[in-house]
Amino acid sequence: MANVQTKSKPPKAPSKLKAPVKLKTSALIPKMLNHAAYVTHDVAATVEFYTKIMGMELASSVFDDRIPSTGDPFPYFHVFFRMGDGSTIAFFEAPGLPEAAAPAHPAYAIFNHIALQADNADEVMRWYAWLKQHGLDLVGPTNHADEFLSIYFHDPNGVRLEITTPLDPKWNRHTDRARRDLELWLDTKERARREGRDIPAALIELIRRERARYQPR
Ligand SMILES: [Fe+2]
Questions:
Q1: What is the DSSP string of 74-108?
Q2: Residues at Cβ < 5 Å from ligand 1 ion
Q3: Each residue of 71-102: pLDDT tens digit?
Q4: How close is the Cα of 156 to the center of ligand 1, in Å?
Q5: Quick one: angle between helices 199-210 and 175-194, nearest 10?
């Protein structure tokens, strides 16, 4: 019987973006991933998977009968698993919580994922062999335009995991390109809206045009 109440309402999304906060961009920056948290309906299987297969330590736990931040009366057991740099993946098992509804489109189950870093391509392949040996369904290895080498699989909760290594040492320093691409994306949407064109079609055109840059030189 479900004993989790659902009286809380999600916060309202702002109707439009506020003007940027006037801070120096370097003044505040998150230092690392502290934790990414998901729901589990089987904490035993989750502990087994993250400690024995993923090699992560069961690092902390919390019991509570309400959510401290919101006050919602959702009882839970919360566990954290630690990775090599001290960052963690966390889970909540909440008594009586119904299974989540299926996503509206299969793309959600692919786009939503968390990527964990390996030291190099050899290590990605060692993960591949190790996970295969444990009977996991694996996708990859996939070379992403010589920026990453990745393999993909799911944990017992259906969370999509990626083990990846950057092949491009500057993979997270392509800021100029990212800014230009963002401008292209937003301009394309805005122009299509102004001209009464189909916005997804305009964006797909943009994607296909820009893909040319990834062709082998
Ligand atoms: Fe990814």
A1: --EEEEEEE-TTS-EEEEEE-TTPPPPPPPSSTTH
A2: 115, 162
A3: 999 999 999 999 999 999 999 999 999 999 99
A4: 19
A5: 150
pLDDT of 152 > 90? The answer is yes
Distance CA 8, CA 157 (A): 24
Q: pLDDT category, 10, cuts 50, 70, 90?
A: low
Q: Can you identify the CATH homologous superfamily of domain 35-93?
A: 2,3-Dihydroxybiphenyl 1,2-Dioxygenase, domain 1 (3.10.180.10)
Distance 94 CA to ligand 1 centre (A): 28
**Ligand 1 mean position, distance from CA 144 (Å):** 10
> 68: CA distance to ligand 1 center in Å?
31
pLDDT at res. 22: 56
Output the CATH code of domain 108-166. Answer: 3.10.180.10
Distance 151 CA to ligand 1 centre (A): 9
